[in-house]
Fold these 3 entries.
Entry 1:
Amino acid sequence: MNIKAICFDADGVVVYPQMQFSKYLNEEHGISPAMTQPFFDGIFNDCLVGKADLKAVLPPYLNKWQWKGSVEDFIDTWLQKDHVIDARLISVIQNLRKSGFLCCLASNQERNRAGYMKTSMGFHDLFDRLFFSCEMGCQKPDPEYFEFIENSLNLKKESILFWDDSETNVQAALELGWHAEIYNGFESFEKKIKKYISKELGDHPA
């Protein structure tokens, strides 16, 4: 098996645990996931592929949810609450890069959070390539998303390994000929990746 590039999802993988902002909204402001679901299932998808701006589409929903602050307050709080990086996985990724593997972030994100991930979360320096749906014009699990990455890396399908916490996304990658695995925690990841990577990954922080 000749893996040359490894692509990691953000939320639920590198950003783990996820949904901290959702918990905060529910516990501190009484804004439940059931209330926000129509937004995330609807217009937010246009934000994810760069067709809509989050700051422009949020106001009517914030009014409906009775959010007391500004749009900027909402977005800033979101970015900060979901700033939860798994240092153990990041350590492994850096060891993989040192061993010669191309490590990429492959994530569905809108522009504000994509920018935050690049700079404030340091992903610009922690990964070789960043693939954000808002910059690509398509999102997982669309085949175009994976084909875009494949073409950008100029690699054969069988040389790419993909990790995501969504079974739908993993299945989509497998159907296109990629290697792909469900990410359901660091310990499981450590065991699974050994069948793809024979080189020593080195120590990681506890």
Entry 2:
Amino acid sequence: MNKNYIQTAEEALLHTYNRFQIVLEKGAGAYLYDVNGKEYLDFAAGIAVCSLGYGHPKYKEALKNQIDELMHTSNLFYSVPVVNAAQALKKASQMDRVFFTNSGTEAIEGALKAARKYAYTKGTGKYEFIAMNHSFHGRSMGALSVTGTEHYRTPFEPLISGVKFAEFNNLESVKAQITDKTCAIVLEPVQGEGGIYPAERAFLEGVRALCDEQDILLIFDEIQCGMGRCGTMFAWQGYGVKPDIMAMAKAIGNGIPVGAFAMTEKVAEHSLAPGDHGTTYGGNPFACAGVDAVLKIFEKEHILEHVQKVSVYLEEKLDALVKSSDVVEARRGKGLMQGLVLKKPVGDVVKKALEHGLIVISAGGNVLRMVPPLVITEAHVNEMIGKLSKALEEA
């Protein structure tokens, strides 16, 4: 049955992904099932999206109820879900103002526009951004412009001007790029696509101090590392370094296409005004009902506490694997965002893992990435280790 679906798909879809030859049909908990009924333990979660796994009853109930009420209306009006979701996300993020988008890429676009509008309103003449090497922020023209991986950018140049790149976790490198035209510094507290690199606390503290000294805005991209993945609601809260603007998406909707960028009141007062930025679908009632449901479930089911506990067990098991395996060099990561540095091609391991019913993905060339649903248990970790060990041996 897979072959029929795959052939039909390849005749119709634009070939912009190197897709696996699997057709998924349904999910339950931490598992996915293909059209032939094969079960896969999912340690990718739709690339860090499905924080609650698949088929959470309260989440499904909230979305089904919203379908009966209201799916979409213009942003010229408020809706009950957008009010509830904005208040809940404001509280969770500890920011002051929220703008809902359709994706993480759009959230980055809004954050960049907000930073430039802030500089314009203040009359500083600033317009330059400093981003990090090996970063990833999305594939639109603005997001690509601050993505610090050359092969993503090159085919689409010239991109937005006024972007410089510094070394992640190297404060002197950041200092060297600052000029009197620098309006914002943008970075991921934990780099995802670049290879699972957590920021050092001293680095984030140093960047925050530089921004404060020179009226430069600090933008955090928490699209992948945020929303509980690192053991706090957003990764910056674990470091104690608050940004001026933050982009988020993925897990805030648990599968609904939704993102957001949030900012402090200081930025909001001097940046985007009516007419500067907008969206047709961003913040529609259906998407916001999903966001509100996710945040309620996080609180009621103590998801953060669960992540803190199970991530310790995951790290212990991965560290043991590093010691016992000849092909795993190191582990790095934070919370339920983990990477294994491999001595053999990651793609081969990913394919072998699929054969054994395990979904994992790559990052940064030689890194095996694990970003499972936040509801996984120690039993799931044990199952993953068993399947992954076989894949490492056979790849």
Entry 3:
Amino acid sequence: MPAKLRTKHLTLVSRLTRAAWNLVWLLLYRPSPIPLHGWRRFLLRLFGAKVGQGAHPYPSAKVWAPWNLDMGDHSCLSHHVDCYCVDRITLGAHTTVSQYSFLCTASHDYTEPTMPLTTAPIALGDHVWVTADVFIAPGVTVGEGAVITARSSVFHDIEPWMVAAGNPARLVKPRLLRSTTRAVQES
């Protein structure tokens, strides 16, 4: 088991709060029209999420525990994103998680007979783009400005201003911005 993972037990209070959130998600969050990002920000904040100005949580984005979610200004959880935030998930400002991606902060310790729940936080820096159908594992940090290409699986930290691809994701190249003549990668 990686050092970052820790065993976690769900209490009765957390289970009841999750049940209340699931009801709110089903009746008020999920059926809301796509343009009503403000309404969904309100509902997430009501359940303890830290949601920045102009953040775009889409109605089909599934958030497991809003109190473990931190969305920076103008960040986005797009269509059908599964935000399994048993532990903390942080999205930096101007960070986008595209459709069908899965942010997973929990697993089980299969080396123990009872397979206890283990968790580790996920952190996505500012200006990150997680493209379509990407899996990000517990304990991963994606550095500022990084791009994870479609259908990648990320099990290790990704350096800032890099493009990563594959399963498992590997660094492919520095992310270059057209407005500069050099890579924005920090040396």
